[in-house]
Amino acid sequence: MASSVTIRDVARLAKVSVATVSRALNGHDNVTEGVRRRVLAVAHELRYSPHHAARSLSSRRTHTIGVVLPDLHGEFFSELMRGIDLVARECGLHLLVSSYHGHPEEQASALRAMRGRVDGLLVMSPHAGDLDFLSENLAALPAVLINSQPTDTDQIAFGIDNYGGARAMVEHLLAAGHRRIAFVAGPPNNFDAYERLRGYRDALLAADASAEPWVVPGDFGEASGHAAGQALLAAAQRPQAVFAANDMMALGCLFAFSQAGVRVPDEIALAGFDDIPLARYVMPSLTTMRVNIAELGAHAMRVLLDVYAGQDVRARLVPLVPELIVRESSEPKAARGASGRE
Q1: DSSP string, 55-121
Q2: Taking every annotated instance into account, which residue ranges of this chain make up the domain HTH lacI-type (predicted)?
């Protein structure tokens, strides 16, 4: 039982806040003796053992973790923050969150503003692979990069196998008989987008060395997916399938196709990447690569706590492997209604 017990369980049974449990277990003075004894008794009864890294972190300065993301809008970032927050609350820690909307100057400013206010940083940034950017803005704070490719081998980075996931999706579309497969790309200078584009190109060329990749620009937003869908419909020869670099753009494409009376998947198959919660509830439901986005955030947070505690985390930096989820938007007619589809 002990391995599954969290600080929230102790707080609930002791009828106090998570912060009070944290203070009681760490010997802080601002807890009455009666409350401290009750918390310790409940912790002993539940055999609760605080995360060794969280205990180390809570004994230091601010009890706050900084999170710097490209944006806070959309289901991907909502799920990512949910995972980060779950671990933070279990450990009695606070979060200081900022976004930079794709502007490196704003991101650098956000990182510098967190100095002295946080004990560690979680950073998602296409600029984080730049050594000058790292040295100028991350300072000496413990940091974990999420979905970034650092050129500094000492920098801790953790993310998704975007390349392998994109290859798996293209191979699925090829196996369904599609040959003209268009790709709606993500924003330039974004590591996720770059790896997904690379996976698309390599899978297409591996199947047919003479294949011409068909790439339409996008920016991970629904509006860019809608514009890409309209552009593809206006082409002299339409694609047989469209693979969007994320689900939000795929949903934008789906809307454009629906407006034009183009049936998915009868006339054009469609697929995305991420498996945001909305993907299964649209009509037709969206084929996608499932990423456990909340677990991505939670795992990055746990790794950061271990980095802060001086633990060797290299073995924990294996990329999350996405799972192919086949739904109605890419199924051949003969396969529709088969069992096992989500």
Answers
A1: HHHHTSS--EEEEEES-S-SHHHHHHHHHHHHHHHHTT-EEEEEE-TT-HHHHHHHHHHTTTT-SEE
A2: 5-59
* Predicted TM-score (pTM) of this structure: 0.73
- In the structure encoding, which two tokens stand for residue 309, read together? 């505690």
Dihedral (CA of 236, 238, 239, 242) sign: positive
In the chain, ranges of CATH 1.10.260.40 domains: 2-50
**Which class for 64: exposed (0-12), middle (13-18), buried (19 or more C-beta within 10 A)?**
middle
Q: How many CB atoms lie under 10 A from the CB of residue 150?
A: 18
Looking at the DSSP assignment, which residues form a beta bridge with residue 160? 320
Q: Which CATH architecture has domain 2-50?
A: Orthogonal Bundle (1.10)
Task: Please give the Cα distance from 218 to 230 (Å, whole number).
Answer: 12
String of b and e for 316-327 (b: at least 16 CB within 10 Å)? eeebbebebbbb
What is the Cα–Cα distance from 199 to 319, expressed in whole angstroms? 15
Distance CA 185, CA 193 (A): 7
pLDDT higher than 50, residue 24: yes
Q: 162-175 vs 191-207: helix axis angle to the nearest 10?
A: 40
CB under 8 Å to 29, separation ≥6 — which residues? none
Domain 64-160+293-311 has CATH 3.40.50.2300: yes
With bands split at pLDDT 50, 70 and 90, how would you rate the model's confidence at 49?
low
Among 60-69, 96-105, 238-247, 282-291, whose mean pLDDT is lowest?
96-105
Q: Is 51 helix (H, G, I), strand (E, B) or coil?
A: coil
Most confidently predicted of 123-132, 142-151, 200-209: 200-209
Helix (H, G, I), strand (E, B) or coil at 289: strand
| pLDDT score for 337 | 44
Contact at 8 Å (CB) between 266 and 331?
no
- Residue 3, pLDDT score: 46
Nearest to residue 145, comparing CAs of 126, 130, 123, 127? 123
